[in-house]
User: Fold these one by one.
Assistant:
Number 1:
Amino acid sequence: MSSLFDVRDGLVLALAAADGRLLVGTGAEARVYEVSLADDGEDRAALATIDPKQVMALAVTKEGRTILGSAGPGRLYALSKSYRKEGTYTSQVYDAGGSAAWGALQWRGTAGGGTQIRIATRSGNVRDPEEGLWSDWSKDQTAPCGRIASPAARFLQFRVTMRTNDAGATPVVEQFEAAYLRANEPPKVLSITEVVSRDLQARAQAIEQFRQAMKSRSQGAQKTGPTPPQPPPPEGSQPIRVLHWQAEDPNGDTLRYDVYFRGQGEPAWVRLERNLARPEYAWDTAAVADGWYEIKVVASDRQDRSAETARETSRTSDPILVDNTAPVIENVQVRVRRGDAGPEVDVTLTARDATSRVTEAAYTVDSATEWHTLAPTDGLFDDPAEAFRFTVKGLEPGPHRIGIRAVDEANNHGHAAKTLTVEE
Ligand SMILES: [Ca+2]
Ligand SMILES: [Ca+2]
Ligand SMILES: [Ca+2]
């Protein structure tokens, strides 16, 4: 089903078809419209308006006379075949898609012998002219070529006024055209996100894609093949931080990005990269000190615009913690004692991280693979330093090695080991 016709705040009360055109009788404002069936009802003309409030019935006689019946009061009217002295047509609202400066206005039609066509325009930045904030109608233009006098705005509407001094002749407007130039609007950077540091596989892939893109750019090559399968990334510290952002331009302009960083609280931005075409950057943080940083992305449409009209927008990321240093394991104390069922080893230690929290700890006995998870003595991994205490039971007499590992928020792994001997 498609919509053929709509009458604002009104009622459709009567229909009659004649010669491929549809006559529509309406209420609220009693009018008869003629609607073309050929083009989805876009083309319509108001033929008559009567005093009673509702056109209830329509009929076209064999001779082609149109009769209409009204309610309140109940009457019959016959439409005369002569043309009215003056009629107006108000167009739909046209959308330029963004703020636009208007140019030429042209119309095509015929206005001979005692008839006249005049076109006026108005413009606004909200879709509905009834909501106000629209300009007044411009002065009527009678020449088929002219300039649109309405102020720059997103929406435009036409009003065509047709007059005749001869009841047997009417002017006809077939087409009107408005030229406009969309104003250049600045890009938008909607978000900056980091590929989560614990999703190691996704990070490794993103880093590799980025490297490929940088490589093909520096070689001037355009082809990008499928990404080869990557070996699993090494455990622990990942100084390369992968950032993605979402950006768009209201005009659909091609965007280029400049990327900057600064330590949190520092005034000056340091540029990392210029003119990136893809909305991503892999930041190698190995060269900066541990701490909190911000990333700024500047998006520009300069690729598609002149230097005078290019626009840019920047966005600053949430603070990013750079932590490339592993926690230190200190004060490892080992005490062997006789338990009820043989020798037992009590171990105490502290794990301390300089920049972030200790988030994980584990130990192993005489093994490189079988790790036992540890909980801090205060029960919570919530501090830069955490103390641990655990007991190893059932050790055979002889030398043993206890390995300890602690992990920080950035997934840096710190290690320590202690050897001991259990006596016979
Ligand atoms: Ca733009
Ligand atoms: Ca650390
Ligand atoms: Ca704690």
Number 2:
Amino acid sequence: MKKPTSSLLLIFITSISFFTNAQGQTIDQVIKPKESLAHFRFLASDELKGRDALRSEIDIAAKYIANQFWKYGAKELSNANGYFQPIPFRLSQPPQSALIQLDTSLLKHGDNLLMMDGGSLKGKFELKIAGYGLEENLKNIDLNGKILVTRVGAPGKTNPAEILELGRKKQQWAKGKGAIGLIEMYHLPNTPWGLLTNYLNKPRLTIAESFDQPSSIPYFWVKDLDGKLMHFIDQNKSVKAKISIESKGNQLIKGRNVIAKIEGTDAQLKNEFVMLSAHFDHLGVGRVDAEGDSIYNGARDNAVGTVALINAAQYFAQNPPKRSVLLCAWTAEEKGLLGSAYFAENPLIPLDQIIYNLNIDNGGYNNTEIITVVGLGRSTADPLIKEAINHYGLKTIPDPSPEQGLYDRSDNVNFAKKGIPAPTFSLGFTAFDEEIMKYYHQPADEVDSMDLEYVMKYWKSYLLTAQKIANMKEQPFWLPGDKYEAAGKSLYGY
Ligand SMILES: [Zn+2]
């Protein structure tokens, strides 16, 4: 291979910056401050009451985003419901009261008992122990009219996310075998009972199986750290549980992601999609702050990212890149990354056609000379990200506090797990310091406390980055050794 002469190199470098400059100028012509800020002020307004996925104002936000996608010329997906992907959510409410009497032990909700799910129930019921309550444990046992008693989690599955996911499955399996309830004995020392039950003992949103009204059997956790209760039941097979629950029951909530696409210009590459995503929900109305404000506007988190998607609809509809662009505004991120999780499991575009996910989400900023890209240093698209951000006179830094696990705490992770390279674009932060905490998940997170000139540069950097990646010659991929590299290879068949 011949080394390029310095003059060739110079031509090469100037041609890169020539393209970047031309694209940057087009972005300047299309994306105007007043128009973008009008979207921003609307989405972060008090009238939308903090865009809580459990409040009706979330529908106003969703419709607004859909209308902007339509106005600017982004298209509906043929397998969606207009610009929407409907999602069945289930809201589980803590019971008014729940008591279980087991011989001489009285178990009380909020104390040594936690009712996780299900409706009212009263009576005396037979108990049946079956290991961890996994499908193989339930094969040859009769659960009809009985309460299934199991250990929480499964061997090797002991972290909170795993045991919650597994618990919901056990509940379905038990119900399928005719059980009228499920008790999981909690014995895990690594997550304290008090911490976990405090977190869980409030209304919780999860993804439901379907849009049918949820019907589920009562499901409990019982504190049994030393295993004594489990042992007692095992030794006294005839003991019955006297149960009394007054429950508010569960509620079906209809949620929606907002989805649109812009077709690419290249006959081949248009079958590949660069997914641009941002969650549009926030925390709603809550605790009053020192100023008497109780509306969590979520300007930084994440109206600013939502406007980046609206700007992308406007810019790319007029300037489509070679690859197609998929615009995804997720609901219910703040309830546990639910909207993106639903799409990852029910994708409207096959996941192996989505070659990259440029997510945008924000806690806040403490430095207006940089943009922080959580996940920088993990894919082959990095040089393009830096080039685009550099065009606006800003520097790119990676996640400054990897110990916070931000990469695995935002919507991007639902796609990274599937193998799609998926960084998150964020306003410049160098640490989770006092300046960030002033606004992070606070009522003070409002448009007027932000540096709007910086916000304009931030929006434009996002567009230029997206454009470069959508025009990349090679498909971007994980750098060797990344923990999601194997998932990527299996997704794309490398
Ligand atoms: Zn966020």
